[in-house]
Amino acid sequence: MAAPPALSWALPLLAALAGAGGHRSFELPGAPIDNIEVSGSFVLVAGGGCLYEVRSDLSLSRRVVPQGGQGCGKPSGVRNKLLLLTDTEAGGDGKLLAGWTQGQGSCEVWRLPDYELVLNRTEVVSCLPRGSTAGVVFRQADSWYLAVAATYSNGDHGPVAGCEPSRSSETAAITVSPIDTLQPRGEGDIIKHNKEPLHFVDALWWGGRLFFPYYRLKAELDKDPELPSMVVMHQPRPSEHSFDLKGQVYLDCGCRSLLISSSLVRQGERGWWVGVFRHNHGDRAWDSTAVCIFGMEEMWDPTCVYITHFYAGTNCKVQSIKKSPTLIHSGLVAVYGTVVLNQIVLFLGTDDGQLLKAILNEDMKSNCPEILYEIEEETSIFPKLRLDPKDNNYIYLSSANKVRRIPVANCSRYVSEQECLSAKDPYCGWCSLNQRCTLKENCTRSNSTKGWYNISHAPDKDLKILLRFPARNQISVSASISKTLTSCIIKIIKPVEMLSEKVVLKNSSCVYNLTTLVTMDNDCLVLEASLSSSSWNITETFQLENCSRCIHDGECASCNWTRVSPATACQDVCSAQNASKDMTTAQKSEHINIHSIEPLWISTLGKSEITVKGENFTRASDLKLILTGSSGCKQEIIKVRNVINDTQMTFALPPTRKEAKSVRIQADGRKCSPPVTLHYVSLPACFGITPNTSWISGGRKITTTGRNLNVVDKVIISDDQRSNLTISERPQNKSEYRYLSPSLSHATEGKVVDMIFKVETTFIPCVKLHYHPDPVFINYQLHTELDPDLELKIYKENDNLNISKTEVEVYLSYMNGSQTTKICFSVQNITEKPDRSTILCKFKREGTEKIDFSTVKVFVKLGNFELEVKPTSSYIYLYVLILLPIVVGVIIVAFIVTRYKSKELTRKQSQQLELLEYEIRKEIREGFAELQMDELDVVDSFGTVPFLDYKHFAIRTFFPESEGFASIFSEDMPQSRDQAHKDESFNMLHALICNKNFLVTLIHTLEKQKNFSVKDRCLFASFLTIALQTKLVYLTHILEVLTRDLMEQSSNVQPKLLLRRTESVVEKLLTNWMSVCLSGFLRETIGEPFYSLVTTLNQRINKGPVDAITCKALYTLNEDWLLWQVSEFKTVTVNVIFEKILENESGDACQTIQVNVLDCDTIGQTKEKSLQAFLNKNGFPYGLRLNEIGLELVSEELQRELLDIDGSSEMMEDGIRKLNTIAHYKISNGATIKVLKKKANTRSDVDYSDEHCHLILPDSEANKDVKGSGHKGKQKFKVKEMYLTKLLSTKVAIHSVVENLFRSIWSLPNNKAPVAIKYFFDFLDAQAESKRITDPDVVHIWKTNSLPLRFWVNILKNPQFVFDVKKTSHIDGCLSVIAQAFMDAFSLAEQTMGKEAPTNKLLYAKDIPLYKKEVKAYYKAIRDLPPLTTSEVEEFLTQESKKHENEFNEEVALMEIYRYIVKYYDEIVSKLERERGFEEVQKQLQQVKALFDEKKKCKWV
Questions:
Q1: Closest CA to 1218 of 1251, 1253, 1259
Q2: How far, in Å, CA of 270 to CA of 272, rounded?
């Protein structure tokens, strides 16, 4: 549906922001991810023996089970090895190739999009669980081919059970076959390996050739391994479409022997291969992994195939291509490369869950990688990263069993234009309209050069630093773009760090004078230059080789300088390992070495003190620690804190990112020490504790599991009754920490304490440890019958400690002469029974030594708790013999007494059951008869509907909890002597509020303040509605803008929650707007059926007994208000005489009216029914209020005043007085009651309190015997559920009225919807369409939250908002049930009602399905109506504005708005200053404040 014209100006902005938000994810159920592949419209994820197709937003589309699969989500051992898609753009149906370990490595071909299985072939991929498989599909001569390189055998390790390929496949390494058959056409398409199996990492198709990067499997274990290789296949005869080996090349990336991940980067006809290489040693070091980039042209034409690798090879010399690492890192596991704006961008995954982004320069050197995303669980990234082909601004990141969709850039981190462009991120640019750094798609008018521009449009895009050597001992630095410099800093980094001291600034260049000769290691110098101008700043690092003679002597012929990353060293990585071997003994005695660092693992918070142990520390000066992380990132140079001695010194390490870093020590004039790896890890996290209980005495062995526990400085047990207790200085294990629970001897009862980790100054809550009282041991039994063995049984009270047998130590001591001998028992088991636990212990004696059992003592030890257990007493048998006759006698007497009482109780129970059965029968029969026969005498004519005027309706709707505003907005502002000056301040404030940009900014600024509460937001929205009551067109535009902004906030979390609550200004503003725009519709169409419902409900409630104290009634809709304790009642018709009074001049001289009352009605209730009868008959009230009249019983003998409480009132046992009723005064049918005006000094009404009761009697009275014939002397029982039929009878009685009201709300009279509803529903449809929300349920919920939930329910539950009526608590409870049924009609959730469902739901359970159909038809009818034009909407709003002119004192609302502005004035001004285009608004705001401040001085405000 097209957007309403009034909204069209904001749709481009909404479309630009629609893609913003956090990452989405898809979680694979029950198993880790095996493979991932992307297409234009979907993502394929394989794992757990199944294939999942998910949409680009990672919502599940379908699940595919491979042929012969065992189900999904089970770790069945079936792994996916291959997942490839053919390109559907090339023509024909797309096909999916999926390879699995089952079926000896089967490969299935599926036809998309229906997933029709076309072919299933075995022995295509590796069936080994850890065997490699790499494949690529390519197209030639209108046919698709599959090239697969795989590890089909374990070599000398023998076959794996269930994976035994045939002899022909066992030695195969690479096969090429058409995908129609998956069978090679000849021997030439099968390449076999020789001897050792090969591990293939990837398969590439480029320039008509196949490329397979791999390494030999034994390289994972060899100490002197071989370099990885790239094997190339070509077509010797293209016409035959057969392939053959072309050759192979070694890939040298800093002597790293393993290949982890690869990516092919294409740009036109050029191509680069990017590989992640790793050393084969097991320890994670700072340089374990590296990224190297090789041009595809370099590997295009190899000439040698090595015989030890392939069967068809020869004994030739393989060419080695050596590349210096583009990026060095400690734990890279994945790479994906792409070209953006002629720059290569690498996305890198790490083994600890980080996604990095590196941008390369023209020299293929990386910047400092940016951390795009971190996985909280720190699970390793899956080797395959993939860009979203549909939206290149997102990348799919896989780890463990979850796939995430991550934005490729965090542009919002750059707050200024200079920062945005200086970052040189090709994805980011400056959005001039929004004044922020964004992706191109997130910027309005991004297609315009002035609207969004990035580094390609920046004036300094080609900015570089140039070096010259103008004279001896001078280095000149200048920028490639000539501009006056404001700053120049030059610093020598290697071989000795030296900050520039003599720098001469000359316009666009600066000269550095070397006052000290620099001794260069291997004639290598590294320096860093930083230049700044008024519009840019740049920092570059240079490596100077063979330049010493140039600098010192002016001979620069052989001098060579190149730009390098900040962490690049002059020394080659491979030769660094052997550098120390060439040192002489004298050099070794002076050379600085690091032996160890303590601690070696620290958190990203840094460390206040680390200890470095080594040698020759006191023989050098100016010691520094050089901390180097990922190459491309700036080194940290840290000065020594304290040199303790020649072998120890301390440093303080700064906070930094999570990675392993190299640590070197540098001394003045000396080489750096060999590097040592230091590990920066994230803050520790706890997973669990076993066991989670301890006894108070402590000493229990506790094991805590978690992550990075070895960076914890202290482990603390926090107890609220004493100071924190440190139980360990530093755990040594990364994932497990074991300790003994400390004693809480001061605690007498069980308690829960917190286990806390202290890392530097940060305290991290871990787990809770539950302390229970020390175990209680009852006694023991020692069995010596098994001599010489001993058996010991110790009895213990049951507890919650779950003590295991390994925790219990049991020993026995006895006297052996004058010495004490100790025997340690072996605990066999611990058995638990309902009354106690038994610890069974045994001891096997080997000698013949006798034990003096009279001196035996038994001890039990649990940690710090040790206790002597007392034996079972031997006198217990004597006590049993004495007490046995007594017990038998007591039992006999008790049996006789019990038998007599049992007969008596049985007799009474029979009587009670008889009474209960009678009551149940009676109530069920009466309830059934009432449902079938009862009719409600609805008063057809209830007179004029008492509508409130618009002002009071609006005030009660705007301020439902602040009734005081009604009088405030009705009053006029105090008059001032200088009326013109006073009006000027309000006029300027009103004009300022009518500035749309200012008002929106003001509201957003206020909502960001922490003390701007929800109540303040609602009040501000209501004040704003009143202030703009006559400008509804403008107010509607503001509502549109704020609603869109709210949608942007809600879409990041859950769009279905939009407008559900009232927690923002716009949500309350929408409620007020609906109230204003629908007030006419409410009065003309809904008012009469709504008033009919309220009146009918009152009549029904008053038809039966109503308890005057609690207001509970027999006839009600709400179970909570059901009066089920009622006794029998009957109707009494009385003649009520109304005398002529001065207050009622329109009435007759005297009237007698028949009034039906109940014999259980109080005198006050009789008054109410009498006044209501008068109103129903005459159409106007009597003239006196309820508390102003009295009743008098008129009879021939006497006249008696009727009161609720008088001297004859019944007094209960508990001192509670029962209210007088019609039955109390023995008033019968036809009696005459006179209504009279109370005298001024009399007061017959009472204030009901806990000392009074009516129908609900105190428990002591309710249980008394019922007086009456037939059941005299029997107790009368009441069961609440017997009276639930009263709820149904009430529902049936008012059902037609309720349905009439509901259908008045959701019907379209004359097939025309109210303008406000049609307009706002079209607005919501347009927003859903622009945000690409296709789920119709979301739009349905938006409409329900904005109209029924926000407006109609508020009206249905509060009739006092619309009519001049009083809403009782009972009426409120009944209307809540009706309102709930109303909202259930709009709900999309399917309601399944059980027998235990609440009655308010069950009442309308059968009606709700019909209502839901009517509601959906109502929504559809509104959507199908022709769209409103802008003029129609504005004409309606203009008419509504004119209706309400001069209704409110708008200056009061403006004054309240100004109070909020003053309260947050500084924050508002600060926001305006940060935004562009508000300069004039700031001046106006200052003028408004000045005018109001002046009035305040004059005490006008």
A1: 1253
A2: 7
CA distance 163 to 172: 15
The residue among 1027 and 1268 whose pLDDT is bigger is 1027
Q: 620: closest CA among 658, 654, 656, 646?
A: 646
Q: What is the mean pLDDT of the chain?
A: 81
The residue ranges of DSSP E strands in 197-269, in sequence order, are: 198-200, 204-206, 209-216, 229-234, 244-252, 258-267
Output the six-digit token pair for 316: 């030739």
Q: CA of 707: how far to CAs of 283, 355, 683, 686, in Å?
A: 18, 19, 8, 7
Cα Rg, the chain, nearest whole Å? 45
Residue 509 region by backbone torsions, left for phi larger than 0, else alpha for psi between -120 and 50, else beta: beta
Higher pLDDT, 293 or 105: 293
Contacts 24+ apart (CB under 8 A), 1119-1124: 1119/1284, 1119/1287, 1119/1398, 1119/1399, 1119/1400, 1120/1373, 1121/1370, 1121/1373, 1121/1374, 1122/1280, 1122/1283, 1122/1284, 1122/1286, 1122/1287, 1123/1255, 1123/1256, 1124/1278, 1124/1279, 1124/1280, 1124/1282, 1124/1283
Q: How far apart are CA 995 and CA 944, in angstroms?
A: 44
CB 1080 within 8 A of CB 1285: no
Encode burial over 502-519: b for 16+ CB neighbours within 10 A, e otherwise: ebeeeeebbbbebeeebe
Structure tokens at 675: 């590097």
Tokens of 444: 């309005």
Cα torsion 1062, 1066, 1068, 1071 to 10°: value is -110
The β-bridge relationship of strands 270-278 and 289-295 is antiparallel
Residue 723, φ and ψ in degrees, nearest 5: -65, 160
Quick check: helix, strand or coil at residue 1020? helix
- Helix extents (H) in 1159-1215: 1163-1178
Six token digits for residue 1249? 């309190």
User: What DSSP state is assigned to residue 936?
Assistant: -
Residue 152: both structure tokens together: 């089909």
Q: What is the DSSP string of 856-911?
A: -EEEEEETTEEEEEPBPPTTHHHHHHHHHHHHHHHHHHHHHHHHHHHHHHHHHHHH
Lowest mean pLDDT, pick from 26-35, 246-255, 1252-1261, 1413-1422:
1252-1261
| Phi, psi dihedrals of residue 599, rounded to the nearest 5° | -80, 160
Q: What element of type H or E holds 1037?
A: helix 1032-1051
* Matching residue, tokens 């109370």: 1238
- CB-based contact 723:753 (threshold 8 Å): no
What is the three-class DSSP state of 1143?
coil
What is the per-residue DSSP string for 348-375? EEETTSEEEEEEB-TTS-B-PPEEEEE-
Report DSSP state, residue 520: P
Q: pLDDT > 70: what percent of the chain?
A: 84
Average pLDDT over residues 1385-1412: 80
The confidence score (pLDDT) of residue 927 equals 62
| Selection from 621, 838, 801, 811 nearest residue 698 by Cα | 801
Q: Which residues contact 787 (CB under 8 A, 6 or more apart)?
A: none
Is the per-residue pLDDT at 1481 higher than 80? yes
CA–CA separation, 1173 and 1178 (whole Å): 9
Instruction: Give the other-Cβ count within 10 Å of 1083's Cβ.
Output: 16
Q: What predicted TM-score, i.e. pTM, was given to this entire model?
A: 0.57
What is the enclosing helix (H) or strand (E) of 60? strand 60-64
Buried-exposed string 827-853: b where 16+ CB fall within 10 A, e elsewhere: beebeeeeeebebbbebeeeeeeebee
pLDDT tens digits along 1327-1371: 888 877 778 888 888 888 888 887 888 888 888 888 888 888 888
Q: State how far the Cα of 101 lies from the Cα of 44, in Å rounded to an integer.
A: 18
pLDDT one-digit tens code per residue, 321-379: 999 999 999 999 999 999 998 899 999 999 999 999 999 988 888 888 999 999 999 99
Cα dist from 1358 to 959, 1365, 1366, 1373, whole Å:
13, 10, 10, 11
Residue 177 has pLDDT above 80, yes or no: yes
